[in-house]
Amino acid sequence: MWLSKKELRSLEPVRGRLDEPVELPVAYARRVQRLLPNFPDSVILQWFYEHGGVIEQHAGLNFPSLRFRLTTFEVKELELPCLAEHPTVVQYRDYFLQGVESRRMKRLAQFIQQQGTWPVPPLVFDNADGGFVASWGFRYSRPFDVLEGHHRMAVLYALGMHRRGSHEVWLVQH
Questions:
Q1: What per-residue confidence (pLDDT) applies to 136?
Q2: pTM of the entire structure?
Q3: Separation between Cα atoms, residue 77 and residue 84, nearest integer Å
Q4: d(Cα 23, Cα 156) in Å, to the nearest integer?
Q5: What is the DSSP letter of 39?
Q6: Residue 41 and residue 35: Cα distance in Å, rounded?
Q7: What radius of gyration do the chain's Cα atoms show?
Q8: Cα–Cα distance, 148 to 141 (Å, whole number)
Q9: Rounded to an integer, what distance in angstroms lies between the CA atom of residue 124 and that of residue 134?
Q10: How far apart, in whole angstroms, are the C-alpha atoms of residue 21 and residue 15?
Q11: Among 50, 65, 10, CA closest to 32
Q12: How far is 165 from 149, CA to CA, in rounded Å?
């Protein structure tokens, strides 16, 4: 069942004057789970709470139909062109390698160097058959597309850590 426009708007966190979320994360996750009980708390917080505008942008995924599975990706998955050459990931990776100053990227790099993986699993859309196209015409990559976690992936690739061990991801299935 698709969410109405009103229900989609209700998924947005309450924001302050500077467009920052002012609703407590736990209260927000609880509120969103009433409409989307299929969404784990951590996914709600990292995808919807942390990123303004993504709810409308990805509404064509039909949120109530999505399933989430925490799994690990090995080198073979992380080296797939749909992930390693994802345009946004490549853009952020190149910024990082060029030394563009970013506190966020520095914190990620420090964490990844110390822990060998990212602090929070990114959201990766499972589009194995390549058949999913957003209602507005966007064609998701095949067999996977990055929904959230572009900065984390960029730093992981820049540091070459994608070739070392396995890394958890939230696999989002339609």
A1: 65
A2: 0.93
A3: 9
A4: 31
A5: S
A6: 13
A7: 16
A8: 14
A9: 15
A10: 4
A11: 10
A12: 18
Q: Which amino acid does the sequence have at 63?
A: F
Phi-psi region of 88 (alpha: psi -120 to 50; beta: other; left: phi over 0): alpha
Q: In what order do the strands lie in the sheet with 123-126?
A: 67-73, 167-173, 123-126, 144-148
Q: How far apart are CA 19 and CA 138, in angstroms?
A: 27
- The Cα-based distances of 161 to 58, 63, 167 in angstroms read 29, 32, 9
* pLDDT tens-place string over residues 31-70: 999 999 999 999 999 999 998 789 988 888 899 999 999 9
| Residue 149 contacts residue 120 (beta carbons within 8 Å) | yes
Torsional sign, CA 43, 67, 19, 151: positive
Task: State the alpha helices, DSSP H only, in 1-140.
Answer: 5-10, 25-35, 41-43, 54-57, 75-78, 81-84, 87-97, 103-115
